[in-house]
Design a protein that fits this description.
By secondary structure, this protein is of the alpha/beta class. It has eleven helices and seven strands. A seven-stranded mixed beta sheet has the order 1-3-2-4-5-6-7, with helices on both faces. The longest helix is centred in the last third of the chain and has 16 residues. The chain is globular. The two termini are 33 Å apart.
Length: 242
C-alpha cells in the first residue's frame, strides 16, 4: 500500500483514510498540512486507488481495505491516531470492531453504519459514465489521480468498483470497546449520512463528541477546509493535554 507521509518522524502517528474514488492526498492533503507540527501524518492510498494497485482486481471488499490498514498500523507501531472520511471512515469502524486497541483516537467524517437512501443515491454519482457527463472537470482530476493504476482510463475501473458500494454495517455493541476519544463530524447539508446514525455512534462511544459543519456537504474536510482545520486542532490539542 502506497503511503505519503508528512511531519517529523518522532511525532505521534496520525493515519488518515480517504473516501471512495479518492486518494490520501486528495481527500486529506489540506488538513494534513495544518497538522504536521503536531503529528507524523500518514496518507495511504487504499488498495485499488491512486498508487496502490489491487493484488487481484477481481477481488475488492471492505476486508481487503481493513487488512491493509491493520498491517500498516502494525508496521508503524500502535496505538495510532486514526481519521477516516466516508469509505475510509467505514474502514476505520470495521477496524475498531476487530482491534480497538490499535487506536489512540478516532475522527470520523461522513460515515454511515447502515444502508439508507441518501448513501445509495451518492454512490450512483460515482458511475464513470455519469460522472464524465455531469462532472467533466472532476473526471479529469480522477484520471490524473488514478493513472498509476493503468493509464488515463484507470479511473473508470476505480469509480465502477466504488459505485457498487462496500459493506458499511457494523456490530454496534463491539464498537463500545473503544475507550479512545472520538470526534464525529458531518456537514449540515450532507444527505449521504443519517443524523440518527451519528446519535447511535455517540451512544456507543463512551468518549465522543460531534461537530456539525455549517453549509457543509459530504467532504467537509476538503470543501470546508478552513472551518474544519481549527476544529480538528482543537480536538487534538485537548486530547493531547489529557
Amino acid at each position: 500500500m502506497h503511503v505519503t507521509t508528512r511531519g517529523a518522524d518522532d511525532a505521534p502517528d496520525l493515519v488518515m483514510l480517504h473516501g471512495g474514488i479518492g486518494t490520501g492526498e486528495y481527500h486529506w492533503g489540506r488538513q494534513a498540512e495544518a497538522l504536521t507540527d503536531m503529528f507524523h501524518v500518514h496518507l495511504p492510498d487504499l488498495p485499488g486507488h491512486g498508487n496502490s494497485p489491487l493484488d487481484d482486481p477481481s477481488e475488492y471488499s471492505r476486508d481487503i481495505l481493513v487488512d491493509a490498514v491493520i498491517d500498516y498500523i502494525t508496521q508503524v507501531g500502535p496505538p495510532v491516531h486514526l481519521a477516516g472520511f466516508s469509505m475510509g471512515g467505514h474502514t476505520a469502524l470495521a477496524l475498531v470492531e476487530r482491534h480497538p486497541d490499535l487506536l489512540a483516537s478516532l475522527v470520523l467524517i461522513g460515515v454511515s453504519i447502515r444502508e439508507h437512501d441518501g448513501l445509495a443515491a451518492w454512490r450512483k454519482v460515482f458511475h464513470p459514465d455519469r460522472l464524465a457527463d455531469d462532472y467533466p472537470f472532476w473526471a479529469k482530476q480522477l484520471s490524473k489521480l488514478h493513472k498509476p493504476l493503468g493509464g488515463d482510463d484507470a479511473w473508470r475501473d476505480v469509480c465502477l468498483r466504488d459505485s457498487k458500494g462496500l459493506r458499511i454495517d457494523v456490530d454496534e455493541d463491539r464498537l463500545s470497546a473503544l475507550e479512545a476519544p472520538v470526534l464525529l463530524m458531518r456537514g449540515d447539508r450532507d444527505t449521504t449520512v443519517d443524523p440518527a446514525q451519528y446519535a447511535a455512534l455517540r451512544d456507543r462511544f463512551a468518549d465522543s463528541e460531534e461537530a456539525v459543519i455549517p453549509a457543509g456537504g459530504h467532504d467537509v474536510q476538503l470543501t470546508r477546509a478552513q472551518v474544519v482545520k481549527p476544529l480538528l486542532r482543537d480536538f487534538y490539542e485537548r486530547m493531547m493535554k489529557r
